[in-house]
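Document type: protein sequence-to-structure record

Subject area: structural biology

Format: plain text, a pair of labelled lines:
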Amino acid sequence: MDVVGFQELQHFDKSALYNAVKNLNFFKTTLFCEVELIEAEVDGKAEALEGFLSLVTRVRVLYRCDGDPKRHRASLILKRMPLNGLQSDIVKSCRVFERERAFYETFVPIMFRVIRTLAHSGEDEDHLELPLPDFLHASKGKGGEGDVIFLEDLCDKGYRLPHLISKVHGLDLDHLMVVMRAIGRFHALAEGVQALLPGPAIGWLERLVHRADTWFHLGGSLDRLVDRGRALLPAIIRRLKRCRLLYGAASVAETLLLSPDVSVTGIIPEMKRDVMWYISDPGQEPPIFLGVVEKRLEVILSMAKQMSGLTREAAESGLLGKALGKLWSILSKSVKGSLSGWNVANHGDLWFNNMLFRYEGEGGSGKPVDVKLLDLQLTRYCHPGVDLLFFLYTSTHRSIREQHFDLLISEYHSSLARTLRAINHDHMPISLDDLKTDLRGEYQPFGVIIGTFFAPYLRLDSDGIESDVENSARDAHREFMEDGNSSCALRQFNSIANFRSFMEENIRELTEVIFPKGLESVNPYWI
């Protein structure tokens, strides 16, 4: 095999590329056959494409199938684990590459099994298409060297990054509707996977009752009673948690009486703890992103003091800073699986830079018609509202969210319901009204934290980041870890009008959620 750009390909076993091409050919032809690799070339334009948590390269190959003299050209996307420097330290500490590989190797094949075996015959294919690139192959090396994931190149199918007026404005309504339908399909197919897995673990209360039933020879009557209670108790606690005044007490009851569902984390152990937001155990190193959030907190408080009204008053009185002292525990609690509500495999990193769209019309000049979701490095198992709010707050403007909230959530829920029906899944895990209540209630603090502490930093103008071209990636990682890009955000807050407006809008919303009735009271969900 002739190889061009060998330096990019030398870090993994060439058999990985062979297996990826063989699987790519199967996706194209539905036929398993041996392939002969004739040529492999690294796309020079893609060689330097460096994400925050991985290195991405496009590999073009020339191959032929066994017994067929015809040659075929194809393009694949190669994701590699960074091997050196601060970026590598971050990736290894968070184990994000292992998480993405495990999700593709373990969970995605079961999603395809759900589509093949549970779907109604003749069902509309749009409801059953997995909104991810085709997974071709993954391999694991030693110490990260040789760790690779091969995916289909969606550009060959006409997918590309979204059309944006600006990074600050985010996605328009047409794009948002396409994404909400895709998230609905993703969550529905993930729910189909969970239906094939073992049920939730037995908690301490059930074990105690079972022993009592045995000791007193009650013939299983207590067990049957507990089974009925086990079905009713989560629903009762969910209903109580949706009442603001009872939220605290209901949360305590939930912790004492209910057990976590470990069905998904049982097959993907990497998902037992969140990558970014968790409370470390005594003696453990603190979460790597905790310092980043603490540094951003200082800058956001200084920005709030430059504003007017309730926001400035809250910042200058110290009440905003005191309330924001709880934000890490809110983030950590939100991304843990709910003990009483619906949990599902979440994508975890849904924002417009992790999406490729296909457009209608010649040359893709029309409206978006489909989207594929990229980068599964932050997958988590929790309430679907985490995915929805993360997407809405990182990829939209407040005015868009508020004007179209009901429409967007209804579109998601309709897509969820259609896909569940398509895979013959009769149980609807959450009603539309309950979902909206959760998003506007228990999970709203998560949304406004994302909107203030993360969304603006994803939209920083790269011209405002001080680094030379040669060392830009290294400098970007160093600046991120040193101050969470807060210095850059403060510079742009003071110099770029539309960024300042976006930042002020989100800080104002954060303050209004924390203090919905003024400074005399705090939102009961902010705990």
Remarks:
- Confidence is low (pLDDT under 50) at residues 463-471.
- The first strand starts at residue 2 and ends at 4.
- The CA atoms of residues 46 and 57 lie 5 Å apart.
